[in-house]
Amino acid sequence: MSETVQQVQESRFEAEVLKSNVPVVVDFYADWCGPCRIVSPIIEQLSREFAGKAKFVKVNTDENQELAAKYGIMSIPTIMFFSGGKVKDVVVGAAPASVYRQKLNSILKS
Q: Tens of pLDDT along the chain (110 residues)?
């Protein structure tokens, strides 16, 4: 795992995501998922680009099934954007970096 993207288990989700004082980008993924492997380096790149402005975490849906169910994850990758403890935006499936960047910039401006 990288130093800029943190792996989060269900037990730490509230502290790391919901109570964060900066927006959090959550990558719901699984190791066996091909599109997830495409998104992973994009999330890495954005985590460096937005260092200090937003937090980036990954949640393995196989290891955190209750959390995935709570947020209605039906397809992976699902990228959720949290701010103030609430889901502000969602992208289902792999997308180019520009899509995630635009959504994050929109949240940072609000």
A: 567 899 999 999 999 999 999 999 999 999 999 999 999 999 999 999 999 999 999 999 999 999 999 999 999 999 999 999 999 999 999 999 999 999 999 999 98
Verify whether residue 36 is a known catalytic residue: yes
The catalytically annotated residue of 5, 8, 36, 42 is 36
Where helices occur in the chain by DSSP H, the ranges are: 10-13, 34-49, 65-70, 97-109
- Domain boundaries of the chain, sorted by first residue: 5-109
**Catalytic pick from 33, 57, 94, 104?**
33
Domain 5-109 CATH class label:
alpha beta
10 noted as active-site residue: no
